[in-house]
Design goal:
The chain has five helices and no strands. It has 137 residues and is mostly helical. It has one domain (18-136).
Amino acid sequence: MDSKFKTAMSAKIERWHPWVISSVIVCIAVKLHDIYPIPNLNKEVLAATINISTITIGFLSATQAILLALENKRAILHLKEVKVYKNLVSYLIDSITWSFVLAGVSMFGLLFEAKDTFAFYVFCYYITWLFVLLRMA
């Protein structure tokens, strides 16, 4: 096989595997919903998720700032030479974005009470939260 083809294929797999894995796990959770009911996402779990997400945002933002500040260093020039620097920066931005999304979804969960009358909405929220959590990871 051609090395450019292998590189292109691995880049596509690298980009899409978080989406695929998250989707598969969420589909399994939906399928097993009758056997294993939804765990209770209590306020402490959502608050802890928000804390971890915001800490992650801070660390990744600091990492990105340092990476951008080291523009003319030998290691950064080498990363640019082998054409992985843009990917690295885009991965950091992607991780920061999904951390913000997870924090937002978790904040939304703090605003409503899970009641039996809203079982479908609670289920949809749980599935959304699970997908975002897995996608961020």
